[in-house]
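User: Could you check the structure of this?
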Amino acid sequence: MSANAGAGSLVASSTPEADRPAEGPELRARGEMVLYRLFDVGYEIDLEQAFQLLASSSPERLRPARGEAQAIRIANPPVTVRLGRTSLAVAGLPLQLEVSARLFDFGVVSLRARVLAPSPCPWAEFVDWCAAINASPDWAGHFEHWRVGLVDRMRPAINRPAVASVAEDYTVFRLRGLEDGEGRAVPIRALGEQDVAGLLLGERRVLSAATRRDLLSPGFSYYEDDLATMAWNAALVIEPAAEDEDVQYVLEFANAQLLELRLYDSQLDAELPSLYDRVAAARTRPRLRSPFRRGRARPGARDSRSGGP
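Assistant: Sure, the predicted structure tokens are below.
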């Protein structure tokens, strides 16, 4: 999937034809969901040192692979590590997870939990399954546990370690493709606007065309069989090539940058009251009159206009 692709017509259109007709094929999804939690853990991360400290977790320094995505310049590519597979229950559902992390030199750690969906899964059931798992409060404790363990292992590589109160979360629903009830491939244009909106926004009721237009990005496609559509805190990525993760790479990098902007904003908000007080105090402080102000003669100064001594 190209990160620099042209806009497709799937989600961009607000016409009734954008919704899948009732007589269309029964859609089944094959894919997974990836939950991201991004934390600022310090002023800076020495990636070379972190790479060495996390050597047992198969660290990698990856960049976007596709030529189009390489337009995004990342001078110091992040370190990606595998934290292992685990089984746990979320929202009462037993899940098999693959946990990993990506470390950015500006102090951000992005934790990822990859969950395979029951496959193939009817679209309505896939949406319900994703909504139940994505909205579960159980994730907070799990991500906290993984963050603490990772930070402890790499602490010597963190300059001025401190976990910020601001965090960022994002979810990517990644599909390998669509198929009908008999297992035959279905083109992605069979997926309507409301199908996408229900998945990304967690809404079961039909949304108006104006709401879909305001809350969803246009659909971006490079090939006939791929698609990327984004909402504020989630994205749908359809990509049959399992090794192509450039879109997710770019989304993750963007969310890491967004976290830093939110952190700076919160720090500014915290400082503004004291700045206002200092400005007010400076304005009310009495000023000292300078003896050298214009219009006032210095003691003993000669009057050049009279020529006197």
